Amino acid sequence: MVLLWRASCLVHCLTLYSLAVYSINVSEKCTQDTRTFLSELNKDLPSEYAALMYDAFGKMGSDVVGGNVNRPGSLQECLSVQGPSFTGQYCQVFLKQDPIQYFVGICVPDSCVEEEVQTLVVYETFQKARTSLIPPVPSTLLAQSTQGLFMTQCLSHTGAPDLSVVTCLFVCCALVAVPLTATLFVAIVRWQRNREVSPGVESSSLKTRDPNLYGTLMSNGTSSGGGSNNSCSGQLDSQMEQYTEEEEEKEEGSKKSKYTMF
């Protein structure tokens, strides 16, 4: 137990020393968050966030001789990390180890920028139990064991959209919108034309009807409207006849009275 405690203290001291060496090129926030992560990782029972960050680091796979040299790690697992004062940030470190080149995916605090991550890698800060989390290809497979760092690229949570992606989406939306607009326009034009033609069709159909049909209906009294008109005209005729008869009777009476006087 004493040996384990001493080893843990030694690792912690080495970590603090390495952080102090390059602190001039790394911000205080990045230094503090990185120290928190590595200190937690080197515990006997590290926290869940530290274990997830460690698991998100790219590990060497099989068939290195056949060309399987890249170690992408886990992007989604790294971005899901929620530390005490930071979140996970996925970065790719591009290394050269003659005669091959490869990249390694790592998970670091989001408070570190690419230049700071590169400095951390150069000083071999990411270690667990004095073992680098970005180990070189072993000498058994590759004679040259010296790693050379030539680029670091980090993926932010709120990265700017790629211009090519935006252009492609715009073109696709335009290709879909143009046919739909044209179809809608044609449908509206046809609907307006049908609406304008319908009254003319009805009037022409009325003109083509039999002109004697209306008179036939009126004379036969089969139409409800025609029947009411016939009844009204019949009443007027009877009243006129009665009035005429009364006038004639008056005239005859006046003539008789004249004859009587003479």
From TrEMBL:
Residues 1-20 form the signal peptide. Residues 27-148 form the Nose resistant-to-fluoxetine protein N-terminal domain. Keywords: Membrane, Signal, Transmembrane, Transmembrane helix. It comes from the Eukaryota. The keyword Zinc-finger does not apply. Residues 199-262 are annotated as: Disordered. InterPro entries: Nose-resist-to-fluoxetine_N (IPR006621), O2_lipid_transport_reg (IPR052728). The chain crosses the membrane at residues 163-189. SMART domains: NRF (SM00703). This is O-acyltransferase like protein. It comes from Salmo salar (Atlantic salmon).
